[in-house]
Specification:
Layout lengths: L1 H6 L18 E3 L4 E9 L2 E3 L2 E14 L4 E13 L2 E3 L2 E9 L4 E3 L2 E3 L2 E3 L4 E3 L2 E3 L14
């Protein structure tokens, strides 16, 4: 029913416009509860519950109904659900309107939409850019 309402543009807006990325090769379903470590490459969509550590060379999407209690290191992190832990992203961390984050963030870019909840420490440091060195004349 929720899908039909969303299709007709009548959804209650709880998901804040979030849709699961269709290109995600790994999806942890809404009914799943997992503990442990996720390590790998590619995009991961977390729709269920997870506790542990996530190390990902790719993007982690945390869906609106998901609950994640983990230390996360990824290329990019998009949060529409609930996350508790320390986040480290090479490029960006994005907290959507339905998202909730409790913990610390280290990233090159950080955005939080109106309605998002964020509690913790934030370090935003753009990636270092290599500049050519010039020899100094004596």
């Amino acid at each position: 029913m929720r899908s039909l309402l969303r299709f007709l543009g009548l959804a209650d807006g709880r998901a804040g416009g979030y849709t699961t990325p269709s290109h995600a090769p790994t999806i942890i379903g809404a009914g799943m509860t997992m503990k442990g470590e996720i390590k790998g490459e590619g995009t991961v969509a977390m729709l269920g519950s997870f506790e542990g550590d996530i190390v990902l060379e790719g993007t982690l999407h945390v869906g609106p109904e998901a609950h994640v209690d983990a230390n996360i290191a990824a290329t990019a992190i998009v949060v529409a659900g609930t996350v508790r832990g320390n986040l480290s992203a090479n490029t960006r961390v994005e907290i959507l309107a339905t998202g909730s984050l409790t913990g610390s963030v280290r990233s090159g870019s950080f955005t939080a939409a109106d309605g998002a909840m964020v509690k913790g420490d934030l370090w935003v440091e753009p990636a270092a850019t290599a500049f050519p060195t010039t020899a100094q004349a004596s």
